[in-house]
UniProtKB/TrEMBL annotation:
Regions annotated as coiled coil: none
Gene Ontology molecular functions: DNA binding; DNA-binding transcription factor activity, RNA polymerase II-specific; zinc ion binding
Record has Metal-binding as a keyword: yes
Name under which the protein is recorded: Transcription factor
Length: 499
């Protein structure tokens, strides 16, 4: 064994990690009698006893074997009785809409048209509702999101990837003008279809990402069906340009912007694998540009103070995404896993005055939310937090602190009264949705404490009951309802990662 592990050849190793390291999900050097993590803290180190593997399950159910005919009949009878009970419950739930069919003994039995699903699976009407078998909301929601994710991916198969992309030029110009002020992007709607004009793939990625977000704006002024078609076309154009851009990418600031754009669009399209891949590219480009060393003595890049504040703000937004992905998608830390030294913008005495307006307030609030999430992960990694009740209590304190952020800045009140400033509305809504979603997922992380799987199945019973979670869920729904009132079409397409 290498010397870096802190284990000499004379020390005896256990075949399994100690219970404390396994519960904390950290690496254990397995040294007997105390591992390298328990010994410095003077903690009791207990190694589990390897359990003998169970024998393989028999291919034939013993109850249905030849020498167990009575047991087999009993099993079949039990199944029939359960099926009859389920059918009766399904029939009664139709509230008199069932078709009554006379049975052989003159009685009437229900033959409901919804008793069985046409897909070959049992209908939900067959499931009796009683206090002993309540619906698991987490399982149902997870299954629904998985189905949406699969359908979204399937909609961009080999047939769709070769179809034409037709976004009206005047509409594209409107979306560009509503989002940013860049002359080269303004020119693309007029030149993109010209045969003798070549547009760099990285610009195409940014352009189609802007088109995608433009579908959510009031400026689009199109019906929901048409807007959905433009959204699909924009994402399709982005997917086509990504491979060529990846081959040419060298880590420029333009590459960083394209990677962040694509990561967000892919996440909203439920393509979390692509979103995670693009975000890792973005983190690589941040390090190539030395953005993680803006306030380090090693930084030899000289920016004006105003430009440096812009770079600081951009890097902190990458930090926020890293923490949010880690919380929601259970991904490992990327940019936060390495050493970085970047102050918050506008703290230097030579900086320009703090910009006014809701976008600055939203950035400051989101930065505080990110710091709370970072402390949450630090708390989970702290070996002194050993019991689940202790971790839950500290998580509740952090969530209350996050709720206080929204109260201090009155973000929900501002959103309720907002009317026309579209840019500010989306920025504030993003902070609110991110914050309250984070509260819910911080409690969902409790299900991972005793699991060795990176993505274990989560049920209602895994999540500790807390009024904080209930309040966060209600405020999340209220924010979404407000967005749907302001933007009936756009908000529906902008909550993929939140769900």
């Amino acid at each position: 064994m290498s010397s870096s592990s802190g284990v000499t050849g004379s020390e005896q190793l256990n075949r399994l990690s100690c219970k404390r390291c396994k519960e904390r999900k950290v690496r254990c050097n397995r040294v007997m009698p105390q591992c390298g993590r328990c010994k410095p803290n003077d903690l009791e180190c207990v190694y589990p006893v390897r359990v003998k593997r169970r024998s393989a399950r028999p291919l034939i159910d013993p109850a249905l074997s030849a020498d167990g005919s009575n047991a087999a009949l009993s099993t079949i009878l039990d199944r029939l009785q359960r099926l009859e009970a389920q059918t009766a419950a399904g029939s009664s739930s139709t509230n008199g809409q069932s078709i009554l069919t006379p049975s052989g003994d003159g009685s009437e039995v229900s033959s409901s048209p919804v008793a069985f699903s046409t897909t070959g699976h049992e209908s939900s009407a067959l499931t009796p509702h009683n206090s002993d078998h309540e619906m698991d909301a987490m399982t149902v929601l997870k299954d629904a999101v998985d189905q949406v994710q699969e359908l979204r991916k399937r909609s961009f198969g080999s047939t769709a990837i070769t179809s034409s992309i037709d976004i009206p030029t005047d509409l594209a110009k409107t979306w560009v003008a509503s989002l940013l002020d860049r002359r080269i992007i303004d020119l693309i709607p007029d030149i993109i279809n010209l045969p003798h004009i070549h547009v760099d793939p990285v610009i195409l990625v940014i352009y189609y990402s802007i088109m995608y977000h433009g579908c959510s704006l009031k400026a689009s002024n199109v019906a929901s069906t048409s807007s959905l078609g433009y959204m699909n076309s924009s994402y399709l154009g982005c997917l086509r340009a990504v491979p060529s851009w990846e081959r040419e990418a060298s880590g420029t600031m333009t590459d960083l912007i394209a990677a962040l754009f694509t990561s967000r669009v892919a996440a909203e399209f439920f393509d979390y694998d692509l979103a995670w891949k693009m975000f890792k590219h973005a983190c690589e480009y941040c390090q190539t540009l030395n953005l993680h060393k803006l306030d380090s003595d090693e930084n030899n890049t000289f920016f004006s103070e105003a430009k440096c504040d812009n770079e600081r703000r951009g890097f902190w937004e990458v930090i926020q995404i890293d923490l949010f992905y880690r919380l929601i998608l259970n991904t490992p830390p990327v940019i936060t896993n390495d050493i970085w030294k970047v102050n918050l913008p506008w703290l230097d005495p030579d900086s320009d005055p703090l910009p006014q307006g809701m976008q600055t307030i939203a950035f400051l609030a989101s930065s505080r939310v990110s710091l709370v999430i970072a402390r949450f992960f630090a708390m989970l990694d702290d070996p002194e937090n050993t019991t689940k009740p202790e971790i839950v209590a500290k998580t509740e304190d952090l969530c209350r602190e996050m709720q206080q952020i929204f109260t201090e800045w009155q973000l929900m009140e501002w959103l309720e009264g907002a009317q026309d400033n579209e840019q500010d509305i989306w920025v504030v809504a993003d902070v609110i949705l991110t914050g309250y979603t984070s509260i819910i997922y911080m409690f969902r992380k409790m299900a991972l404490l005793n699991s060795t799987s990176p993505r274990p199945p989560t049920t209602d019973l895994d999540i500790p009951d807390s009024p904080i979670v209930e309040d966060a869920a209600r405020r999340l729904i209220a924010a979404l309802n407000r967005l749907l009132v302001i933007y009936p079409y756009g908000a529906k397409r902008s909550i993929g990662l939140t769900v």
